[in-house]
Amino acid sequence: MRDIARQALDTATSRGAAYADVRVVELRSESVVVKNGRVDVIRTDESVGFGVRVLVDGAWGFASSALLSFAEADRVAALAVAIARASALVQPHPVSLGPPVTTRGRYTTPTERDPFAVSFDERIGLLLAADQAMRRDPAIVVAEGRIGCERQRKLFLNSEGADIEQELTETGVGIECTARSEDEIQTRSYPNSFGLHMGTAGWEFVERQRIVDHAARIADEAAALLTAKQCPSGVTTVILDSSQTALQVHESCGHPIELDRVFGTESAYAGTSFLTIDKLGSYQYGSEHVTIVADATIPGGLGTFGYDDEGIPAQRTTIVDHGRFVGFLTSRETATLLGQTSNGTMRADGWNRIPLIRMTNINLEPGDWTLEDLIADTDEGILMATNRSWSIDDRRWNFQFGTEIAWEIRGGKRGALLKNATYSGITPQFWASCDAVCNRDEWTIWGLPNCGKGQPSQTMHVGHGAAAARFRNVQVGLMR
Amino acid sequence: MYSERELRAIADIAFAASDCDQTEVIIGEVDSALTRFANNGIHQNVAERNHELTIRAVVGRRIGVATGNDLSPEGIRRVVEHARAIARRSPENPDFRSLPTPRPIPPVDGWRETTAGFSPEARARLAAPVCRRAAEVGLVAAGYIETRAEQFTVANSLGIFASTRRTTAAAMAVVMSDSGSGYADRFALDAGDLDPDALADEAIGRATRARNPIDVEIGEWEVVLEPYAVVDLLLYVSFLGFSAQSVQEKTSFLAGRFGERVLGENISIWDDPTGPGVVPEPFDPEGVPSRRVDLIVDGVAVGVVYDTLTAARDGKESTGHALPPGSTSGPLPRHLYLAPGTEDDLVRKVDRGLLITRFWYTRPVHYLTVTMTGMTRDGLFLIENGEIVAPVKNLRFTQSYLAALNAVTGISRTTKLEIEEGNFVVPSLRIAQWSFTGKTAH
Known about the structure:
- The complex is a heterodimer of chains A (480) and B (442).
- Chain A is an alpha+beta fold and 480 residues long.
- Chain A has 2 domains: 2-225, PmbA/TldD superfamily (PmbA/TldD fold, 2-Layer Sandwich); 229-476, no CATH class.
- Chain A contains 10 helices and 24 strands.
- In chain A, β17 and β18 form a beta hairpin.
- With 442 residues, chain B is of the alpha+beta class.
- Chain B folds into 2 domains: 4-122 and 145-170, PmbA/TldD superfamily (PmbA/TldD fold), CATH 3.30.2290.10; 213-442, no CATH class.
- Chain B has helices at residues 4-17, 73-89, 113-116, 120-136, 196-209, 227-241, 244-248, 308-314, 401-404, and strands spanning 22-38, 41-59, 62-68, 140-156, 161-176, 181-188, 219-225, 269-271, 293-297, 300-301, 335-338, 352-366, 371-384, 387-391, 395-400, 408-419, 423-439.
- In chain B, β5 and β6 (181-188) form a beta hairpin.
- Chain B is globular and about 70 Å long.
- Chains A and B meet through β1, β2, β3, α2 and α3 of A and β1, β2, β3, α2 and α4 of B.
- β2 (38-56) of chain A pairs parallel with β3 of chain B, so a sheet runs across the interface.
């Protein structure tokens, strides 16, 4: 494999590439899905291939193939160079990558128990136990649970001397149930929506979620939501649970700090960003309670790794410091345009895609509150939990989110259940209204396995540490 | 791409390696390239050659699925062994009856050599006009040119062998000024049919008209939706309603409502995987011929699409709309048509309303009513007295798509092919009422 990668590099440089890198990636995944008391899917997936990225005359080219052979390495490297020469036909400015990257290193995700060594019987048994607990309530029409694990082995070589091997392991679990009456449908999920809550970890990650202990509760909640009050419309105080706060960070902070978006290279699809470069260092993004970091080094986060796909070591970068906007997510190319060096966020979702600037673990740093004290401190408001819908404009400015479940807060106490809760706002105004974040004990690193970006599209696995947080004067309940 | 002889040889190796009761072999091949431009220049330019083998192994009513992309004899046998081992460990699926048996597959013509052989230089030539012309008038263009050549083959141990090739070419552009943007896209089987100047005309024209947008009040508006926006209505109504699985699980808005009028009388929707104008898919990943299915006729719910498993539950035949094995979404329509109307100009009859080019980041807020939230993007315009009078800053909406399709007051005579998570052939629509719930700054 290494010899084939080396040959691709040699071919690319001999054909005129000023810079070249090669990634060889082996991906193996397993998933088990149980639905309504039956095993719906058990599957294994394997994929291997390599991609060659080159700069010729300051223009990019990339080609990839599933065939690992010396002849194919030559063909793909030559094609990447030809593509780069075509790019140069319509390119106003040559690309500069800044200082060379010569990193050599190895990284392996620490795991306590290899998820691939856990028998399918054990995985099925756990999901069936949760399934049975969810389906006790006759209002439940669909109960579903899934366990997934993924292992990626990556070799990265570049023409500047970098040589990196990584083995990344991810494990995740999720359950959800849907209750139906004649005129209503409601879903509850655990630990999070989106199917799977994941981390870079082994089977111990699944065990820590204790899904069976929570299955009956979410089924009861889904059934109760069928007859719950509709979330009212108006302006009020909102407390978001940890997972919804994490998604709020993802959409309204994680995406607009991607420097490729800021420079317009995602404008045809994902959009641009209201956080333009003139705002760096001075813009008031949120209140003093809002400190956000990008941390690819935190143990267990779904955005944790050893090196990014340009060979830059994983690092921790402050993005928002007590409300002030101080940092972007960068690549070698985009950092150079700012006179900086990359902070290591370039990742591709496979051998057949180029790396893009992607979130690592974008974390809202914890505050001092317990959730219990925060509710007690709130005279009137709504507690919202577990994302159901999410939408934000193409500059990450105007957003609307819905949650699976909500409760009234009156006189410092959690009150009546509310269904179909939504809230909306404008990003900097919303974060400026944050007056409390819960403490480290309430803080969780949520794994989001479905972050989309790029053309051709790529789906990235990213993480967000967050605790419940409180926001004042929020518009809620716009659903007709 | 593999020849038929090579494909049959791969299937034969898989069948020989399997001692299961039934075995299904799916081979997907793709040779694709995408040239992406932004800031009036090419900034990403990629190519991919890949293939994937999927094996579905059946032991009694136990099923295992495995995939891999090593198509050497050892690689094929390894995937078979994974699927076989999973099947033997799996509990029985009582709904499973059998893999399908062979049925005639209609011939289709979905392959164009021009697309399959399109060079990086040819893609650059298609990207160049919009980049150059946008720069000439002080605008900024972004977008992509994509070509795909695919071959898809299904074989099973009950005698099915079906293989089809298809090509797709796509061009998309967003053109931006400091205060507005415009959109255009084109899809075709033949990359030679993509007209880069027409793409540039449309996107630059719309971006120019979108400069200096005004504020309008949120609330209920009469709207005209371009085909780019109409696709979203069909996509989500279909995703949340037109699968037999969602009806069987009672999560579809159609559950228990067949024979009832659920949409306006002027709305008819059907799926036709080999119909006019779409990239044809003559059979599904089970090797079952994909046939036309009427879903809504004159507003009345009349049908949903089936795969083998959901058809068995209802005592029906598969309509050939399976997704690949291992998917949990059930069958889905992927070649949807919304019946065209008779009007040539939908804007002319609007006293005061909004023309919407397309939507962005739409998500379901409520499944039964197909209530969605999302933004307008790349061209929102005020209509007064039948004329477009001003560009408007983008708005957020929260709107039931079912209610919208019950309030259609005009349908264009012409339709457009859009490819976005499936093929859509759709007209423009005029809708009496659309609920806008938020503003943004651009």
